[in-house]
Amino acid sequence: MAYFKTPQFLHEVFGEKQSMLEVSCTVLFALVGSWLVYFVADIKLDNWQVILAFILIADVLAGCIANFSLGTNAFYAKRPKNRLIFIAIHVHIVAIAWLLSQPMDIALIIWTYTIVTACVVNALHGKSIQGFIAANLMCYGIFLLIYLSLPTWFLMVSVFFMIKVLFSFAVDHYRQSTQ
């Protein structure tokens, strides 16, 4: 697969090099996924809050895919402090809940679980068990989301938020693991 150098302003999203296939798949998933969430939510794009919420939803979906790419993974593998900062600043689910009038206590439960477990997974960097623990915590997180009885569209966004931060981003998918 041919890789190209990404512009510096896109390094946090796509890393220093990326393939057209990975960029195309990321953008396509963000657009199609946002449209599906919009369709299921049956919300009209009639004010700045809804428009901003759907921009954040597209970002969640794009990151869910981009964080699995070789370029993004390599960029953050070389910058462990940046990876931790990236995890910490992910308040998307809380912002989306606020913008679209969802219960903040539920959004905070989802956010807290995701951030705490992503930090646990991130702390296992370089260990062969990292991916397994991330998958295990992701599965528990899905049970949590189902238990919370969320509206379908918010469940969709919450699942992808959790995948993005906990599994897609916190795991170093391409490093040679050690015992």
Automatic annotation (TrEMBL):
Listed transmembrane segments: 21-41, 47-70, 82-100, 106-124, 131-147, 153-171
Keywords tagged on the record: Membrane, Transmembrane, Transmembrane helix
Protein name: Uncharacterized protein
